[in-house]
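Sample pair:
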Amino acid sequence: MNWSIAFEPLLSWTWLGVVLVPLALLALAGLILRQRGAGFRIAAFAALALALLNPVLLDEEREPLKSVVALVADRSQSQDIGDRRAATDSAMEELRAKLGRFPQFDVRVVEAGQASDTDDRTETRLFGALDGVFRDVPQSRIAGAILVTDGQVHDVPEKIEGTNAPIHSLITGEDDERDRRVRFENAPRFGIVDKPLQMTYRVTDTAGGQDAVDVRVSVNGEQVSVERAIIGEEMSLDIVVPAAGRNIVELAVDTVEGEITDTNNRAIALVDGIRENLRVLLVSGEPHAGERTWRNLLKSDAAVDLVHFTILRPPEKQDGTPINDLSLIAFPTRELFVEKINDFDLIIFDRYQHRDVLPILYYDYIAEYVENGGALLIAAGPEYAGLQSISRTPLMAALPALPTGDVIEEGFYPRLTDTGERHPVTRGLEGSQQDPPHWSRWFRLIGIRQPEGQVVMKGPGDQPLLILNRKGEGRVGMFLSDQGWLWARGFEGGGPHVSLYRRIAHWLMKEPELEEERLTASGRGMTLDIRLQTMSDDPGTATVLSPSGERIDATLTSESPGIFSASMTVDEIGLYQVANGDLTTLAHVGPVNAPEFAETVSTEDILKPVAEATGGSVRRLEGFAGGISVPGIVPVRATGQASGRDWIGLRTTNDSVLKSVDRVPLFGGFFGLALLLLALGSMWWREGR
């Protein structure tokens, strides 16, 4: 019960002043002048004032509110080290039991620090979770917070103001832990393929010392060197970027005796390989309507350095004039096809036929260039079916098909073959999904026989139109029509000549993204995405090897022709190995060199400033014989001490909720009337004597 007095005036305060002030002045004047009956006048005035003010005795029934306690469990990956997770579970269970004995506490349990499936940031963020718990609680009702953590918290506020609630921290782990780690100090994001890239790294050890240790260096899963590093010193490292696209550089050091974890004994750097400008040699035959199509496309590609020569003199104009006298620029045949042929990434013959311009021996050099890893594209026209065809030279050893001598001249829609629908060069080509395809017709096709390699496009009568073939270490492409310029000119709506031509050129130059058989994997938050590009209809399953060595089978599902994919949520940060048949790849899941494993030794130092600012405490959970020691819980006042040797205190609140009010008028009814009459009667009686 809560008793209090309130006034409920019968008149407004203005009228009360008008009535009572003159009476009060008269009563005071009589008292000052010592008139007879002045005391009775004051008593009568007081009785009248009380009657008008109407005092009421209130009896309030209130329900006390509970103080809110936040119980926060650190569930970050560093808590998986040793017995930390088991200690956390035991401490949380015991704390809930102890807090359950106090009805004045509203306990809110929250688990924080888990890695998100989509967020690449992996940090222990306990204070963000704490803010969420107290978002709907007024400051007067916050009893305090208890954090069960290893002390490696990454969102500790610099300053805590406006709260009197103690924040206590119970630290898992042991006091004398040791950890060795390696990390990159400087790791460039990009590097040029086949060129050295300079990086720096550092090996640290909580045990101190400046011993030398071996550091294994791997690039894309293959060990390339073993470096000698001094603990604590920044070391330099040079690697060669092996391929375009994503490359994974990994450093690894051996574990030492007594080390709490080997997770941070590896460091990862992701380097995107950039190829230097590709060099392309384009040799065009006599001028024709589509001569500039290949030139314009290659010139518009910033990644291509183009060398282009056109043979201007047709065969029917042969005479005794020396070739050098007819050329705008002397054709440097020896320099191009003997001395610097290996400097080119791709050679294109666009409607070229054999002439005396190129010695017959040089065709053998070109065939050898292909065999040793070069790329050759034949954009064939009617010349390829004629007597001066380059198929009648030593180059025939590198060609995927020989002509029949037929030139088919009729309108047709270029179509994808079954192979072409899955091949990365032609797969998903804009307009190919319809029948007939949503692009213009062509009107010429060169007949061939017994093609080698993969026929990805076809013409009338299912005749081969585009052939892609591997020859030795190199690649050869053959386009059996010179009508692609119709797409470029927009005839009948045109067609996707830019996409098609560019894909052909880059496949020949071994662009990784255009490989027929390609397995890739990538991390998206804590999700591992797997993508298989294959010509097979049955991809099988992908085998995933986690950083801890666990094997997981991932079922690949069809996404589109030639594309299969799988996604899986994982709970480990690190490097995953993915395999499918002979294909293997690596993927890093989670943040690279995550802050969660930058420091893994449990510590009290990070949370001590918070405890000092709030009146809380920081203490370890470790007890005797490997057990834990959870301090007692004591409710304390708002101004009392909140921690002791073996106990921690939580504030109690004085806030309450009003449920009902009982009113008892003190100057109402017969009692009030009698008192008023008594006062007035006494005044008259005294005045009458």
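Residues 13-32 form the longest helix (20 residues).
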